[in-house]
């Protein structure tokens, strides 16, 4: 059942991107390791594809919301699996796993219809 509006989803996108960008510093990973770089790369990507998404908080209104949600799911899968894919699960895995699963979950419960006019 999809119950999160695209407007709320947009807000969550930018909050998630901000979280992804600051978490390497808050948790002490920095950006000189893959542990921290994956957060920064996905944070920047989230900002970029959110800015071009055709929803209430998109700037350029190009990318359909369905494709945006698919990118969210793929980003969440990559983030959740990254500790094992890139071999740093012995250093850290919980933040990647939790945020990745949250990203997937939110995408799956977001409505695919924006308000009229978009």
Primary descriptors:
118 residues; mainly alpha; 4 helices; 64% helix; elongated
Helices and strands, with pairings:
Elements: H1 6-26, H2 34-51, H3 65-85, H4 94-108
Helix pairs in contact: 1-2, 2-3, 3-4
Mean pLDDT: 96
Major sheet characteristics: none
Fraction in helix: 55-70%
Write down the Rg: 14 Å
Instruction: Indicate the overall shape.
Output: elongated
**Strands, total number:** 0
Q: How much of the residues is beta strand, in percent?
A: under 5%
- What are the low-pLDDT stretches, counting only 5+ consecutive residues below 50? none
Number of domains: 1
Structural class call reads mainly alpha
Number of helices: 4
Report on the structure:
There is one protein chain. This protein has helices at 6-26, 34-51, 65-85, 94-108. The chain is built from four helices and no strands. It is 64% helix and 0% strand. The protein is elongated, with a radius of gyration of 14 Å. The mean pLDDT is 96. The two termini are 22 Å apart. It is mainly alpha-helical and 118 residues long. The protein has one domain.
Task: Give a short synopsis of this structure.
The chain has 118 residues and is mainly alpha-helical. Helices cover 64% and strands 0% of the residues. The protein has 4 helices and no strands.
